[in-house]
């Protein structure tokens, strides 16, 4: 089995050269301790932990999976020991407030950690990842007693957390939630209902699990306006901060899944479980989704991480595996055949993986800067500033989540293709990466839901195209600066054309939708994918611009590193970016060709 290597050189290139994170951190109160030396030490140590501890458990965890016995879930061999090391390293509290035992570093530091952990072993990273969602919710919306009770053990990693939204009758449409919450005389509530697809709902890694649950009060309005949010711990907190009695919440089943089998995905039953209201009554969705943009960045990692992992393994295989002779002549004349790496079609697949992984990583790091400002504003109580950055992030997150996870699936399939028949065999690990990645396009909202959120809500309804105009102005201004730079001119010209086209397409879809509402749904997926390709093009131009500068003036990396960056950018613009035009054509196609066939006529069988 190949091993994962943390891509620290590329990470530091983006952090230090492309996005100036050292300067960015100086503008943040939480960035005081995020000095370049500290950041590099954290990245190095986290990379070591992922390479030496998490990566070796990747395949074995998939083979063994989780087991449910009498309501108790056992994680695969080695997971508890790995989690103990994770806790001892203080990784859970990396970006948590110091008041609750965290290290108080910027939120983006947590994303860097999450990227490496998720690439090395996504199933493992789900357990502490879900805890972060619970921590954020309690920190923002809990009262002081709830913060003191839950945030300290969650930050330490002694307790885990979940987010319990989905029910058997509803997925994305949370207005159909039926779980009931009955008020009690002591101020608590009893919750009754069933939740499905609950990641980390039950496991043996922590002594307690804190569930954040959506439920309805008896007199709640119908739909999404009548949902409240509750804290429901597996064990009720004891008077001394320890564990009290077992609560009436249990795991009824483990989902049998295509991938991420070492992550416990549970059916959770609440049978009159004791819960505590968090946030105002009937405003549960608003509380739950406060940090949803940052959660969707986290999900977008599952597009970038598997692309990186599959690329690393495919590259090693292509260098070693020999098959036929290169069409341009023998490359390894002393061998029976040339390495796969010398065949142009294999290079196409490898470079596509590389462009997706490194372009996607740049998109994540660009968004993470916005997330830092948003989180800091929330922490400081500056809701106006928080809303400003949340809006900026809100435009990008459906693009990141939808586009990057779709391309992540493509990249992992290409990695399996490089291996040929061996890629289909379990022992090589490539088919596992494909299986594990597939869920990323589904949870936190399918690609179609992300597309509707982008086009329908963020672009048409909320801003009437303003979100596209604002972002493309920034992109166009950057491209104009490099029109006179010979290596960058072709890419800059193309990107300028695309920013103008993006605005034109937005207007055309907007006008068409006034006559036919189905146009929004019909065009949404193509609009999202088009937006993704143009956004990634912007990221590749930014990387290429730095590479050209460092080639001329010198930098910390080798000339070959910068030359390869420039070459990969050119590959992206010439081989992958043309796909955007197919999406542009398709999004303007009338909804009629989707809707004209009657549902009962879609199949004629028997």
From TrEMBL:
Protein keywords: FAD, Flavoprotein, Oxidoreductase
Coiled-coil stretches noted in the UniProt entry, renumbered to this chain: none
Start and end residues of each Acyl-CoA dehydrogenase/oxidase N-terminal domain: 40-157
Ranges of residues in domain Acyl-CoA oxidase/dehydrogenase middle: 163-271
Keyword Acetylation: no
Cofactor(s) named in the record: FAD
Domain Acyl-CoA dehydrogenase/oxidase C-terminal: 282-453
Family: Belongs to the acyl-CoA dehydrogenase family.
Name of this chain's protein: Acyl-CoA dehydrogenase C-terminal domain-containing protein
